[in-house]
Amino acid sequence: MKIKEVKKENGDKKIVPKKKKPLKLGPIKKKELKRLVLYLKNGADCPCHQLDNLSHHFLILGRKVKGQYLLTAIHKWDKKNKEFKNFMKKMKTHECPTFQSVFK
């Protein structure tokens, strides 16, 4: 994902993506993905060094809480890093549980 802009809004950090390519969609629909905005709760004053240079591609993980998408992790997309490659392989094959499968 490429990031278009980062703003401060009501004590949160608002991240507006420019280009998005989902690795795993989970419960999010493609329609929601088009107008996706991520929030870093209480992160307006957080010194996130990952967001200093917005020209890179990022791997972004998040979850939906009360209609808002919260940022849980962000990492610079680095194909040369061996640990990153191993993580990506595991992410692609890992089956994420859904609430329906957990509570059945």
Give a description of the structure:
By secondary structure, the chain is of the alpha+beta class. The protein has one domain (2-103). 21% of the residues lie in helices and 35% in strands. It has 3 helices and 5 strands; from the N terminus they run ββαβββαα. It has a 5-stranded mixed β-sheet with strand order 1-2-3-5-4, with no helix packed on it. The longest helix has 12 residues, at 82-93. The radius of gyration is 15 Å and the shape is globular. The chain starts with a strand and ends with a helix. The model has no long low-confidence stretch (mean pLDDT 81).
Q: How many strand units?
A: 5
Low-confidence stretches: none
Work out the radius of gyration.
15 Å
Helix/strand order: EEHEEEHH
How would you sum up the major sheet?
Answer: 5 strands, mixed
Strand-pairing-aware structural class? alpha+beta
Average predicted confidence as pLDDT:
81
Walk across the major sheet and give the strand order.
Answer: 1-2-3-5-4
Q: Compute the number of helices.
A: 3
Could you give a short description of this structure?
The chain is α+β, with helices and mostly antiparallel strands. It is built from three helices and five strands; from the N terminus they run ββαβββαα. The chain starts with a strand and ends with a helix.
